[in-house]
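TICKET: design request
STATUS: open
ATTACHED STRUCTURE:
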């Protein structure tokens, strides 16, 4: 396992210079989130490598990790049955946007990093995927723009389901001017979505959160409040 120390920016600079054949011959899990999204999506797109969006050495492990996040991460990477449960904490239900059941492989991560890979060979196919998105420190007009781009690109018609995690510290660029709030943006853009969709999922830049294995198939049952892996990832 290779665990990132922290996020930041710059992973996308690596993507054209990586020896993907060498990685395919000697695969290892890459654990991290935020800027690591670019590298994780590239590895999934180019060699089908399963990586884990999970806690990092210089963040959760150094600052102290809550029990929910800690337990799920270790259950997942240890191959324990408890790692298959991706549901929210019991006291923190998600908000349904559209009901139903979705099945597909997990793809996603930090929203702005996913969108930066559009038009490149480093974004895995989103067709039939359960797309999981979160972000941090983004102005709300940028979140609005990215959501609309997903819609205009037809992604919301091709995925199996949409899961929206934490959007941490995402505020208007100028609080003194009128602006749509995060919930208003999501409700307006996703008002006509035809696939199962939720917001308020426990995943992203804050705790408590689930760790997610990109590329592994999962099932989302919106009304039942269940989100489960259909298989455990293997190292």
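STATUS: resolved
RESOLUTION: sequence designed for all positions
ATTACHED SEQUENCE:
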């Amino acid at each position: 396992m290779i665990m990132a120390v922290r996020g930041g920016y710059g992973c996308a600079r690596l993507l054209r210079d990586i020896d993907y054949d060498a990685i395919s011959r000697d695969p290892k899990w890459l654990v991290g989130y935020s800027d690591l999204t670019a590298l994780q999506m590239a590895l999934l797109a180019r060699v089908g490598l399963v990586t884990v969006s999970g806690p990092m050495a210089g963040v959760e492990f150094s600052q102290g990790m809550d029990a929910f996040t800690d337990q799920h991460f270790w259950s997942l990477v240890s191959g324990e049955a408890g790692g298959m449960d991706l549901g929210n904490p019991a006291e923190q239900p998600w908000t349904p946007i559209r009901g139903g059941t979705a099945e597909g492989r997990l793809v996603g991560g930090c929203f702005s990093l996913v969108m930066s890979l559009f038009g490149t060979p480093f974004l895995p196919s989103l067709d039939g995927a359960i797309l999981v998105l979160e972000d941090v420190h983004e102005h709300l007009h940028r979140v609005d723009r990215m959501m609309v781009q997903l819609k205009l690109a037809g992604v919301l018609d091709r995925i199996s389901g949409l899961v929206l995690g934490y959007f941490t510290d995402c505020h208007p660029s100028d609080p003194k001017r009128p602006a749509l709030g995060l919930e208003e943006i999501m409700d307006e853009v996703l008002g006509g979505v035809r696939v199962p969709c939720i917001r308020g999922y426990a995943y992203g830049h804050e705790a408590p959160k689930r760790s997610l294995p990109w590329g592994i198939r999962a099932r989302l049952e919106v009304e039942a409040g269940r989100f489960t892996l259909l298989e455990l990832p293997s190292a």
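CLOSING REMARK: The CA atoms of residues 16 and 122 lie 9 Å apart. The longest strand covers residues 101-110.
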